[in-house]
Design a protein that fits this description.
This protein is an alpha+beta fold and about 475 residues long. The protein contains 17 helices and eleven strands.
Length: about 475
Amino acid sequence: MIAQKIFAGARIRRIRVSKGLTQTAMAEALGISPSYLNLIERNQRPLTVQLILKLASVYKVDPEELHGEGAASLSQLREVFADPLLSGELPGEHELVEFAEAAPNAATALVKLYRAYREQAERLSDLSEVIAANPGASTIAVPRLPANEVRDVLEARPNHFASLEEEAEAFGRILSPQDDLSAALRHWLQQEHGIAVRVLPVSVMPNWRRRYDRHSHRLFLSERLSPADQLRELAIEACLIRMRAAIAAEIDALRLSSDEARRLARFELARYAAHALMMPYAAFLNAAERQRYDIDVLAARFRVSFEQAATRLTTLAREERAGIPFFMMEIDHAGNRLRRAGAEGFPHARFGGACPRLAVYAAFAEPGRIIPEAVQMPDGEMFLTLSRTVDGPYAGFEVRPRRTAILLGCELSYAGQTVYGGALSQASLEAPLPVGRACRLCERQGCLSRAEPPVTRPLGLDEMVTGFSAFDFQ
């Protein structure tokens, strides 16, 4: 059987241009003449096995990428143009081949656009079925969105992924970062995958935290990120490459219902893996116990942000060596709950987190201050909560900065193991602040913070009496 010849002129030209080389300079490095390289770039000569090996050695090019980069995008383009809306636009496949070869970035963008179009069409189809089934309903229960599905699945399970922890430990041994993980990651990306890392100004990359250009093998980070956040984005990209199989296996185990949900879960698990790499399990847990879970000290020791250290505390659930089972919630100014997680899953039924009396909702009045508090639920269960604001990316003068607040909590019985337990007065330990899971589920009377009436009690039974709450009940 005659082997298929490989014509990859556009790809070779793209490699040369991305590295700022002339044809003469590249030809010299490959040991061929400039005229022969010119013929290769014009697809008038195929690549030889020796030349493919030379490209892999000199420019860290994956041979499979040279042979098959167009194949994947070509099959995806076939799917796009097989849609009834576009099926009559192309007379033959040769234009698809030329498009995939000459403009791979544009081809990828077209595939992404088509994928978004298909997923949006599926959502509208689901919504149409709901409307058809409830034609007279005044309100419609919108189908669960992929983001909601991922959030619900991750909140309901322990925030611990043993396989990712093991992969992160193995990766850390390979990197051997000493005291500079950022430099070790940059070196690994460059040496193993030919990926250069650059920090770009806001004017060049105004909307993205991180962007990897797979054609020029460059990873771009925004200068708006703090050093700790830049390190996390760097670690996320490295983990997506190194731990691809482990992350895919964990996503499969979540049993999500759509491709969009799986993509979102992939990002969440990559961030988990990055935290595991930045704060190795054993070292972080040992430091946490020695420092009595002082989050500021942990953040300084591991050169991470307060938010990153707090998030890592919710993952210390290894069976043979577990830490305090913390749970976490993040909200914005409007009280929207952005994310929730816990070492044993977020305690929806036991804690809830929607009570306006919780300090996390008042933390915006005291930015940057940790507010420890003992709280008690209606059933008598007590928790230690730590609330603090965290700032988002650096903003320009005319941009309102992003500020959120996080609540870190655990059962009050663990308070003595933390540095924050000593900050609580004896009175607050003996009589914690009464809170509820949510106003709709709380029957505490006379609550000045009540925002909604309880679903379990009738209102306004006595016209001669008014209480301090906006929703009075007896």
